Automatic annotation (TrEMBL):
Coiled coil: 62-119
Protein name listed in UniProt: Uncharacterized protein
Ranges of Basic residues composition bias in the record: 189-207
Native organism: Alosa alosa
Region (Disordered): 1-25, 180-214
Length: 238
């Protein structure tokens, strides 16, 4: 079988076509035709010694494997394309987030600079106003602190109003204290009244119990005396 295979290989066919019996092949097309005829399925089956069913089964298996690997390669390419698209989307999202972060940082920096400038301008204006006020005070000390000046009059009026407010507050506190003391005295009086009433009720109950005890005690003594004398009858209690 191996001898047949070697004789039907493409190189052997070409050698036989070129050298056997002095036969010469004129064209390359004729050599190709001889090769195709030699390697036809019928020749292969004859050289391998297999029947048609085995060869067709192997051909169908090879076809299924080819289709499977083709589909697998297609799936791999699709997956690779999806991964590439997802990677590109992630890169775009990261770039967008980076741009947004840079914008927020720039906005925050701008607001910080504005706040610092506003605060600095306010401090400068306050310092200028203070300098002007001190300059005016130094330039007019006698007029500012004289008893007839308007500033002194305003200060005296403010002090008078403050004094009146303090007196009014003191009166209000005193009235509240009196009101609280009055309510406390009233509550204590009511408590004493309730205590006296409860004491009277308790004394009445105690007196009533004592009277009942005194009323029962002679009868018991009389009953004991009768039992001592041997009397059978017992007194009838009212």
């Amino acid at each position: 079988m191996a001898t047949n295979i070697n004789k039907t290989t493409p190189s052997a066919i070409m050698e036989r076509a070129e050298g056997d019996g002095g036969y010469e092949v004129g064209t390359q097309h004729h050599s190709k035709l001889l090769v195709e005829q030699a390697w036809s399925p019928h020749k292969i089956r004859e050289s391998l010694g297999r029947d048609d069913a085995e060869v067709e089964l192997e051909a169908s298996d090879l076809k299924e494997l080819n289709e499977y690997f083709t589909a697998l390669e297609k799936s791999r390419r699709n997956l690779q394309q999806l991964l590439q698209e997802e990677r590109e989307e992630q890169v775009m999202e990261l770039r967008a987030l980076e741009r947004e972060r840079v914008q927020e940082r720039a906005e925050w920096e701008r607001e910080r600079v504005e706040r610092e400038e506003a605060l600095l301008s306010a401090l400068i204006s306050m310092a200028i106003s203070r300098q002007k006020l001190m300059k005016e005070i130094r330039s007019q000390p006698a007029t500012l602190y004289s008893p007839s000046s308007s500033a002194c009059k305003d200060m005296e009026a403010d002090q008078l109003i403050l004094k009146q407010l303090m007196e009014l507050e003191s009166k209000v506190r005193e009235a509240e204290g009196k009101k609280q003391l009055k309510a406390l005295a009233k509550a204590e009086k009511k408590a004493r009244k309730v205590e006296r009433r409860s004491g009277k009720n308790k004394a009445k109950k105690t007196q009533k119990k004592d009277d009942q005890v005194k009323a029962i005690k002679p009868k018991r003594c009389w009953h004991r005396c009768i039992l001592t004398l041997g009397c059978v009858t017992s007194p009838v209690e009212n």
